[in-house]
Amino acid sequence: MISLFVKLLAGIALDHLLGEPRRWHPLVGFGRWAGWLEARLRPQLPTRAGGLLAWLLAIGPWLALALWLRVSHPAAHWVVDIGLLYFALGARSLAQHAEAIAAPLAAGDLDMARERVGWIVSRDTRALDDAGVAKAGTESVLENGNDAVFGALFWFCVAGGAGALVFRLANTLDAMWGYRTERFIRFGWAAARLDDVLNWLPARLTALTYALLGRSRDALACWRAQAPAWDSPNAGPVMAAGAGALGVQLGGAAIYHGREEVRPPLGCGRTPDAASVRAAVQLMQRGMLLWAGAAAAGAVLAALAGTR
């Protein structure tokens, strides 16, 4: 337990100090590998089984390599676990992307804010007004707080660096293949469902974290009333609780792949603005401190139990 806490703290510290690599990002290479697999397997096996095979082939070699490296030397587990947690975390990058939206939005540069929010969301941002940009940015920070932070921390605590690696790669495949389009409706089914499974418990812990650190009563009420209306079993609780914790109204109509989707409402309170995007980042960062504190408490209890 003590070694787990030290590794967790080291991985968080590396992400805080270094952020994501600017060059030779591992996820870029993984995305190319996944794209190569899809181009060869999907035309031949455009089925759920073909998608599952592609998922296993995409992730399996890297998981096997990580496990082999971890046991290649008695001390290798320190380097491998810390390095993989650093790879899986995206807290600093998420905060930087959010500020790149909030700063021009607060300054009245709507065109720049639209461009920057388009970097991190899949909806069409060209016609968004100020509130629409703030809504998209806030939703993205809240949802990615689970995908790029708390989910990785959870699976690291469960299964070490290998757990964080599988979670991050599965989340990436869901982002690439998990769409209900003609191209991926069957082939991407496994990527979407496996991401749902891996995210189920982390998403609810993320929602609870948001509720504890914000407007708790509103967050829990929004989670209970609004999350079931969302198609995603995990994004619903995370964003409903997060919006309630921040006291803002999210959800509503958005354009995806040229088609308008009217999404259920999220949260309660005021219309979001640039301050809401920044508040979502602060909520995520306070949540990381809470999780680190919980891990520290667990390490202390384990040490005390070991001395008895």
Automatic annotation (TrEMBL):
Transmembrane segments: 52-71, 148-170, 288-306
Bilayer disposition of the protein: Multi-pass membrane protein
Associated pathway: Cofactor biosynthesis; adenosylcobalamin biosynthesis
InterPro entries reported in the protein's UniProt record: Cobalamin_biosynth_CobD/CbiB
Record localization: Cell membrane
Location (main, coarse): membrane
UniProt entry keywords in alphabetical sequence: Cell membrane, Cobalamin biosynthesis, Membrane, Transmembrane, Transmembrane helix
Family: Belongs to the CobD/CbiB family.
Known function: Converts cobyric acid to cobinamide by the addition of aminopropanol on the F carboxylic group.
HAMAP family, per the entry: CobD_CbiB
NCBIfam families, per database record: cobal_cbiB (TIGR00380)
Protein name: Cobalamin biosynthesis protein CobD
Annotated organism of origin: Aromatoleum evansii
